[in-house]
Structures are given as C-alpha cells and as structure tokens.
Amino acid sequence: MTAQTKKRGAAENGDGGIGLGLAAFIANNEDLGPIVRHAFESGKPEALLHSLRNVVKMKEVEIEEICRLHYEEFILAVDELRGVLVDADELKGTLSDENLRLQDVASALLLKLDELLELYSVNRNVGESLATLKICLQVTSLCKKCNRDIAESKLHPALKTLELIEKDYIQNIPLKLLKKVIQKQIPMTKLYIEKKVCSEFNEWLVYIRRMGKEIGQAAIGQTSLASQKDEGVCARRRDVEECSGAGFNEHAYALDVENIDEEAMLEFDLAPVYRAHRIHIGLGLGEKFREYYSNNRLMQLNLDLQISTSQSFVESHQSFLAQIAGFFIIEDRVLRTADGLLSDSQVETMWETALSKVTLILEQQFSLMDTANHLLNIKCYISLLGATMKKYGYRATSLVEILGKTRDKYLELLISDCRKQIKDVLSKDSYERMVIKKENEYDMNVTAFQLEPNNAVPDLPYVAPFSSSVPSACRIVRSFTEDLVRYLSCGSSMNFYDVMKSYLDKFLIEVLNEAFLNLIHDGSLEFQQMVQIAGNIAVLERSCDMFLCHAAQLCGVPRRLLEKPHSGLTAKAVLKASQNAAYNGLITLVNSKVDEFMLQLTSINWTVEEAPEHANDYMNEVIIYLHEVVSSGQQIVPRDALYKVVSGALSHIADSIITILLSDRVKRFNANSVAGMDIDLKTLEGFADDTYHSAGFSDLRKETSFKDCLVEIRQLINLLLSNQPESFMNPVTREKDYGSLDHKKVAIICDKFKDAPDSLFGSLSSRATVQSARKKSLDVLKRRLKDFS
C-alpha cells in the first residue's frame, strides 16, 4: 500500500486527524486509555470506533503488501526446507541406527556407572560421617575429661576444659541434638563448679576460724620464746660483766645455737582460697568472690571480737587475743599470696576497726579488775600480741598507749594485794624466834634472802633472831619486785630502774613499814612480841640493800651502780625510825605492865602500926618482870635500846610511887609505911645495880646508871626517914642530899606524913609522950615549906 492510498483512505473517512493520532499511539505501543476516555467524555465514541476500524484496515493493507513483497523468498525458503527435511530424514535414520548400536554398547557401561555413582555417594556420606564423628568424639572426650576432673575435685582444669569446648568446638558440632545438650549442660556445669568451690570455701572458713586461735597462740608463743632468749643472753652478759677476776670469756656472749629451736612454721591450708579465687576469676565472677570473701571474713572478725560470757575475761583473754592475732596473720598471708584477693587498704581498715574495739574492751575490763596478778598477766599477753603483730606489719600504737594507762591502777592493786598479804602474815605470826631444824628450811628462809652474813649452814636446830613473818615478808617484797619489773618490762625497752626503785621505796614505806607501825601502835602486843617485832624490823632494815640489789638485777642494772652515794633506799632510814618506835613501844609496854603492879600501892596500909620486914608483893612482882624483860630483850634488842627500856621502867616506878603519894588516894601515911617503901626501894636498887653491871650496861658508859633512875624517890624516902628533915631547907644540904626533889611535891607529901596515929585514943595516949626531935623537925619543915610556898 502506497502513501497516496493511505491519504485517500483517511480523506474518505472524513476524520483523518483522529485516525493518524490513533495510529501513531498504536505504532509506538503507547496506552490508548486517555484517547478512549477523551472520546467517551466528549460524547464521540462512534468517531473513535470508526477510527479504530480504519486503523485495522490500514494494517490489513500493510500486511498484504508485506506478504506480496516476500512471497518469492518464502518459496525459495520452502524449497530449501524440503531439501533439509530429506537430509534430516536420512540423518535421523543414521542416528537411529547409531543410537541402537550405542545403546547396545553403553548399556553395560551404564550399569557400571550407576554402581560408581552409588559408591561415590557412599564415600561422601562416610567421609561426612567420619568428620562428624571425629568432632563428636573430641567434644565427648572433653566432656568426659571435664566430668572426671570434677569427680576428682580438679575444678580449675574442668573449667579450662569447658572454656575450650565453648571457644573451639561448640559452634562446629554438626549434631544439633548433641550441640543443644552441650549448650544446656555448660552453664549447669559452671554453676555446679561454682557451688562446689563455694562449698569447699565455706568449709575452709569453718576450718580457718577454728585454726585462728592455734595460729595466734603459736605466733605469740614464738614471740615469747624469742623474748626469753634475748633476756637470757642479756642476763648472761650481765653475769659475766659483774664477775670480778675471772677475765673476759668470749664464749659467755655467744648464743648457744645448738640449744635454739627454729621457729615453728605457722602452717595452715589456703589452697581452698586460692582455688576458689582462681575459679571465680575463670567464671568471670572475681569481683563477686572478693566481696564474698571480705564479707564472710568480716563477719568472722565480728564474732571473734565478742568476749566470752561463760568465762571471765581473765580466763578467756588469751584465747580471745590469740583468735584476733590468728585472724590477721591469716589475712596477711592471704594478702601476700592470693594474687589480689585482698588489698592493703582492706586489711588496714579491718585492723584499725578491730584495734579500736579491742581497745574499748580492754579499757572496760581493766576498769573492772581488782587483782594485780590478773592485770599483769593480761598486760604481758597484750604486749606479746603487740610485738607479734608488729612482726607482720601491723601497727599497735593504741595497745601500747592503753597499757601505759594501766600502770597506776596496777601499782594500786599490787600494793593493795601485798598489803593484805603483809597484814595476814603479821597477824598470823606468834612473834617467837624461828626454830629451823632442816637444811632446806634454812636455805629457803635464811640463805635465800641473805638474812645471815655467813652463807655457811650453822648447826641445826638453828634459832633465828627473827620470827616466821620475816622470811614471809621478804617473799612478799621479792614477789612485789618481780611482778612490778615484769609489768614494767612488758612491751618496754626503756631503762625503768629508777621507776622501779621509787615504787619499791614506796612499797617498803607505805606498806611494810606502815603495817609494823600499826602493829606497834595497836596496843594489843605483849612485851615478848614487841621485842620480836623490833628485832624483825632490824632484820628487814638490813635487808633493804638486798631488796634493792635484787631489783637492780632484774632491771639489768650493774651492781657497781648501787655502790654510788645516795643510791640506797629511803625506806632503810624509815624502818630504822620504826625500829625506834618499836623500842618506844617497848618502853610503853613495860611501863604499862609496871602500872598494873603499881596499882597494888593503893591497897597498901599506909598507916601500918609495925614496919614490914620484907618488900611488898608488888615490888617482888615488878622485879621478877624486869628480870624477864632484861633476859628476853638481851637476845634481840640492842643493848642501848634495852638500856632505855629498863631505865625508863625504873624511872616510871619512881614516878609512880611519888604520884601515888601525891594523889588523893593516900590521905596520910606514917613512918612504918615509909620504912616499908625503903625496903621496897632497896630491893629495887639492888636489882638495878646488879643488872647494870652483870648485863653489860656499864660498858655503854652512860652518865646515868639504873640506880640513878631511882634517885628522886630515894632522896624522898631518905628525907622522910631523916632525923632532921628540916635540913631540906638548908640550900647546901638540899643541893647535896635532896637535889632531885621538888619542894612543892615535898610540901604535899610531908603534909600527909604523920609519924603517930591521929585517932582520939591515940591522942589521949600521947598526951604524956614527949614529941621526938624528928617529929619536931618534920613539923618545922612543914611550916617552913608552907611559908616558902
């Protein structure tokens, strides 16, 4: 179809514009929807249909034109195709024949190929199975090893095995069921390991708390042993230094290594701690375990810091303090060996907390204590605790401070205890000279305290110059010294000799000397007891040097320092003064006993009608008593002191007689009673003169003899018996014969002196009697004395 034909067809249709546009859309394969919608909206669908029909006609014309143009080529192609079909038939026959031959030949090969393919499939399956089986065997082997390690409590290797399974095998397990089982069991196994190791650690907590006390006791025991060895070396050195004339011995300073035991190692099992720590780190729970360990140990520490309610602190203090020491020794070992389980700050904080609580407990317990020995034992153990903890790097300054505060309380309790002991010893003493019958008794009571200058044992039985209270008092003083030195030396390296000396002085003065003074002034002692007390004080006064020497030895002070001036004890002079007080007490006792005898003077008939031929009973008793005083006093009391006692007694007798004559008890007395007093006085003078010379008092060369003590009463009796008593008023005579008499006393006594009875019948019978010259002289004396007064 030509272009002119197309134009004609379009003109004939009368709507060429729409037809061309529609043809263009169809040729370009565009959507005809807008054109169709426009045609219907504009109300011209018939025009659209007409155009479509025209387009169809145009396409038919084009088809016819194309067919006409290509018809010849088509014929040729058909011819060629027919030739190809002939060839194809021939080829098909040939192929069919060849196929039949090939099938005949390949049928056997196909059977073998099928077998080969089947074998290849089996081989692949077997290889895959072997690979799967190998992985499963490795995993199950590791699982088995893990179970075995857990069964054998090798928890850390088991945990490593689990980590290996998780890291290298769990993702490669081909069997889903096995993989699922293992994935489920791994967390459960880890939880089991955690619980098991926690269980072991909890058992360790119980074990280590039980072991804590033993560990603390062992460590404190080592410190005590080391301290004793050091003290032994120092003592040996002092002994060598004080040995004179022996020369220097280098071996004396050497420590005998063979006799020293090595310090026992403080062995305790920390393996459960190490294992639990490592396993928790492996589980990624290291911080949780550190917190768990810290909390549990802190709870144990709080329990350890509670003192026992079933026992007194005195009985339980060692276990209490040892438990605390053991706790921190364990913590120190854990800190150093457990690879970060504890930090220095944690341990330091626990130590400071425990130290503050222990300090409060000690302050409270010290305030309740009433026995020095208890306080001493606790103080020494606390000192050992401080020294022990210092070795492990712990500071114990507050312990030292609180111990320093207890010194005054300890001294007060110690002195109080010793005062009770001294009082008990003195109250139980019979104050009789001690009789020692055995050599061991002599060594224990005399030699041990150097109470005799000669160390040789005398012939037994030995009668000591002291009573049983002296060795007992020496033991108490020595015990006081040793306890105080032990207290002062506990935890201290300073030289405390001066402090020790002052306290020893204080003890001897305020306790021992005061006890003797109380005994002396008690007024319940007999003369023999007072004599023995005076002798005891003398022995103890001489023993002061021994007490000081013993204290110096305990304090490590060389003996040569004690030989310096003013290095002795003040108590020595105080005891000397107390000895004089005892002598004065003897005088008081003797005079008191004499007063008992002199009371009989009041029952004497002072107006007796006949002069007695013998001394009165009271005077005989007085002389017997004075004989006993001299004989018993000579064995113990120094001669000078005994002189004072006897002379005082004689002076007191004379004063007592004069006092009786001056008192209202004697209204009057006569010449016969004076003659009786003269006999009494002569008897007493005989005793005084004989005792003064026979007992060796004359060797003292005193200005006044015993007889001179009676001079006043002797001059009074001589005056009353004198034929010329008025000569008393003569100054020369009075100075010569009556120099000891007081004219006032003479006036009173002479006024009571009646040479004749003053009764009615007596006066009547005497009317015829001429007064004697002596009576006249006495009357003159009376008058002149009255005038003189």
UniProtKB/TrEMBL annotation:
Residue ranges constituting the Exocyst complex subunit EXOC6/Sec15 C-terminal domain according to the UniProt record: 399-752
Main location per the UniProt record: cytoplasm
Pfam family, any one: Sec15_C
Cross-referenced InterPro entries: EXOC6/Sec15 (IPR007225), EXOC6/Sec15_C (IPR046361), EXOC6/Sec15_C_dom1 (IPR042045), EXOC6_Sec15_N (IPR048359), EXOC6PINT-1/Sec15/Tip20_C_dom2 (IPR042044)
Chain segments annotated as coiled-coil in the UniProt record: none
Taxonomic superkingdom: Eukaryota
GO biological-process terms attached to the record: acceptance of pollen; Golgi to plasma membrane transport; intracellular protein transport; pollen germination; pollen tube growth; vesicle tethering involved in exocytosis
GO cellular component, as recorded: cytosol; exocyst; membrane
Family membership noted in the UniProt record: Belongs to the SEC15 family.
Known role: Component of the exocyst complex involved in the docking of exocytic vesicles with fusion sites on the plasma membrane during regulated or polarized secretion. Involved in polarized cell growth and organ morphogenesis. During cytokinesis, involved in cell plate initiation, cell plate maturation and formation of new primary cell wall.
Annotated protein name in UniProt: Exocyst complex component
Source organism (scientific name): Digitaria exilis
